[in-house]
Amino acid sequence: MFQNFDGRTVVVTGGSIGIGKGIARVFAKSGANVAIIARNKETAEQCAEEISSFPGQAKAFPADVTDLPSMERAMENIAEQFGGIDVVCANAGIFPSATLEEMTDEKWDHVLNTNTKGTYHTVKASLPYLKKADAGRIIITSSITGPVTGYAGWSHYAASKAAQLGFMRSAALELADQGITVNAVLPGNILTEGLEGMGEDYLQAMANAIPTKKLGTVEDIGYAALFLASKEAGFITGQTIIVDGGQTLPED
Length: 252
What we know:
It holds the Pfam family adh_short_C2. The chain is of the alpha/beta class. The protein has a single domain, classed as NAD(P)-binding Rossmann-like Domain (Rossmann fold, 3-Layer(aba) Sandwich). The chain has 8 helices and 7 strands. Strands 3-2-1-4-5-6-7 form a 7-stranded parallel sheet, with helices on both faces. Helix 2 (about 40-50) links the parallel strand 2 and strand 3. Helix 1 (about 20-30) crosses helix 8 (about 220-230) and helix 4 packs parallel to helix 5. It is globular, with a radius of gyration of 17 Å. The termini are far apart.
């Protein structure tokens, strides 16, 4: 049985929608104090209110992962309000599409700044507080796209997600002797708000490409993050968990 998360503080960036919201819900159900970081204050507050009925507390902290001072202020406020930070889920990310012919430096930089530099900013801003935790945990939301597979039109996204794993491994080595683990979850096709409007035929076609014949849920990613954040996972660092229903397994 996993540890009880009562009294532990969990930060989730990009926590107001999609996978981030699923992660926030899972930790709140497990009794954690959940700090939801998002650029949009209104959506972050709405998410916090939605999960307020769960055992754990939830509060919104508007901040931008691309801006280090913004993240430092948010982490300071979180630590003051909850008495510290134990777990950081670096989840914020964007995934606009652009072919190589359409790609511009601005489009490339926008994705890398959010997905990769945003992860670095999240970790750097949280380190002073994670070092004081009994068992500091960092969980990065990467993707199967980039580290394992490719997808046309997503070269900038794939590069950003592969870069997160290089960062993860080196950070894991730096922080290991301080009791902080750094791991990543790699989602496959997950049903989020962005996909729900694509139509039943489109969703079914996506599901058919997965051996389990169904799309993953945002909670599926949340439970993988919950495991990596647990004390029971304390001897795991610099590793990845693919959560894709077997999507990456077939040879053809």
